[in-house]
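Check the record.
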Amino acid sequence: MSLNACLLNPIVQQVLCSEKDNKSQDSLLFWLFLANQNYYIELNRNWAGIKKGQSLQLSAQYFAFGQNINSSFQWSSSDVSVATVDQTGLVQGIGNGKVSITASSRDGRANAESSVTVYSGYVYTTLNFDNSVAHLTMGENSGVLTVNGTTSVIPGSDPNGIVTDPSGKYLFTGNFASGNISHFLINQSTGALVANGNITAGANPRNLVVTPDGKYLYLASEGTQTIRAFSINGDGTLTFINSFSTGIGHSQIQISRNGNFIFYLSPNLTEVVSYRINYNDGNLTLVGTSPSFANNGSGSIATHPNGNYLYMGSFPSITILRFDSNSVNISFVDSVLHSMSINGSIVHPNGRFYYTVNINNLSISGYTIDPNNGRISLFQNLTGFSGSSLRFIIIEPSGRYAYVADNSGEIKHLSINQTTGELTFVGSVNPGSVQWNLTFL
């Protein structure tokens, strides 16, 4: 590790750059810090997606001063209800959700984490013209979707947004025409939905997000120009908490990777604003505003897995922003000319690729992400889709397949090259009607 790199660390800065004389305790802290930087663990997988009931073998290598040391490890799971791990690094998927699997060296000098998502392999999509939700199952080896059936929402409800809680027990839809949210219970064996009631959600509710712990749900209420907050009860119903004025009737809402912040467009559509979530009561506090960027009203915000970068699907350019969760500062990174209207966007689970769904251009653009600074470079513009508009995109947790909702009546199925990020159109499936949005469980 270089001295310049060390000086970027606040501990080293405090010790070496202080105007005061260094005390012996500070000097000891400094040398211990430098020593620990020479001990690290490398895992064969830093992230993974595995199906519930299946397993994944993780392995680790321990390095000291650049030399690979033969060592055993202590393995642990941050949530054994999601995944367990034995002392050989074998991970077993138990229940839906995200979990950190940690390998620690026996001498306690180093550790490394792998972020693992356990999934069921279900896709749910809102059929807004049909006032229902379709349930599909993904073929584990092919990625092909099989339609299992549909569940009615409310007549004339026009369901748009859709989200599940992290544990995979509940599903919620934002019903644009009827002004409410519908609750559904998810059968843990089959994935089938059972209606579980409704709650008023203001005029024209659109998209929804849920906190990683499944405690709160937030909704973009387009008609009332607000973000509405709800607590998720133990029976899968919702309780209204509060409404937060945004000064803009926007359709899309996003949550930070650590679950502590909500991102939304500012009233003039040319900044991203951030709200801090109070986990004691679910209330929101406006804490940050990004630098201004050119925008005609597009508003798809995608977050990077490392939590440091926001990708704003603005027009005529994609705007890349850096988000510091400690200072809540949002700073400008880059702007890349795109000149197409973006409706949906997503970052691949490996953090190396960014995709935009270009709603009126019937195309999907793929960009590589520079891991050092978050900047993007175009590598693909996939065209040739039928229909009149593409809407939203999801990527299943193992990163092999993507699915796109559109208004042709067929979900688009694409495979993803894990090395290059290139998308290949595989085929389509008709879930019963036109889709607005979709989610993966």
About this structure: The longest strand covers residues 97-105. The chain has three domains: 3-37, 40-117, 120-440. Residues 40-117 form a domain with the Immunoglobulin-like fold (CATH 2.60.40.1080).
